[in-house]
């Protein structure tokens, strides 16, 4: 029922695409990250929490919203969205036609982060899954342990006279990092890209911690010892000079591998990911009960081979979706 085309994942009987990477007539969007929600399509369908983020990133596009679990008939194909737990508004797409059910996971994680909502397994015959961290080495620690490490790192930096710059993807990861830092009860400065997302979500009704935009020309001592959240693209830029002496940390699942922080030339790395780890991927696939699994971006070869060894028909699919830190 779903096919893989040069424009993206296509449903021929429904006449729509799911997270297309080229402009199409009808696009069903799992979430608002730029590799899954791209500009140029004529009509977009997504969860209501994703809609304001699409408008922020794509401008005045035509967006229709569909609540989780609500069904929509598109040319005889029943479409519904279900929580993916990746970021705010992230959804899996369930497609049913003539008794056959497919589910497209988008990006997901199975452990709740306190913001994005819990992942919901959806039974299906065919499951299209990501595999960003589809190797056994990627197994996440409890979120609160990582949060405590981040807060202590910030306090240690301040005691030594440094500002703390935490690099985190502007949509999803940044909201978690800001939530982590809120208990310190100090101003949290944010790069404009992150401030825009945070303000959009607050205006949409989310009870999130407000951030302060970094002044264009700050007072010499205004930002000394401050807490700053910025996207990975800010790393190594002259923009960091605003904060005086700084320590820089990357918040990413890639920090699970020893040496990645050193290779990135940053002072610290915190293992914080918006994607499922190895065990999470296995748990999600098993919960669907799918007899056929299609493995997309990430470690497709390793994860599909593992599934095949478990007696599940699995194959690798090449897509244009990005990795965790691509913006």
Which terms would index this structure?
7-stranded mixed beta sheet, alpha/beta, 7 helices, 2 domains, 6-stranded mixed beta sheet, Rossmann fold, 327 residues, Metallo-beta-lactamase, Chain A
Commentary on this structure:
This protein is of the alpha/beta class and 327 residues long. The protein has 2 domains: 3-137 and 275-316, Metallo-beta-lactamase, Chain A, CATH 3.60.15.10; 143-270, Rossmann fold. Helices cover 22% and strands 25% of the residues. The chain is built from 7 helices and 19 strands. It has helices spanning 51-58, 143-159, 173-181, 192-203, 260-263, 278-288, 300-309, and strands at residues 3-5, 8-11, 16-18, 26-28, 43-46, 63-65, 71-74, 77-83, 91-97, 100-104, 126-131, 163-167, 188-190, 212-213, 227-230, 246-251, 268-270, 292-298, 313-316. It has a 7-stranded mixed β-sheet with strand order 7-8-9-10-11-18-19, with helices on one face. Strands 1-2-3-4-5-6 form a 6-stranded mixed β-sheet, covered by helices on one side. A hairpin with a 7-residue loop joins strand 8 (77-83) and strand 9 (91-97). The protein is globular and about 65 Å long. The two termini are 31 Å apart. The mean pLDDT is 95. It comes from Flavihumibacter fluminis. It is an enzyme of class 3 (hydrolase). One of its GO terms (molecular function) is exonuclease activity. InterPro entries: MBL, RibonucZ/Hydroxyglut_hydro, Xnuc_lig_assoc.
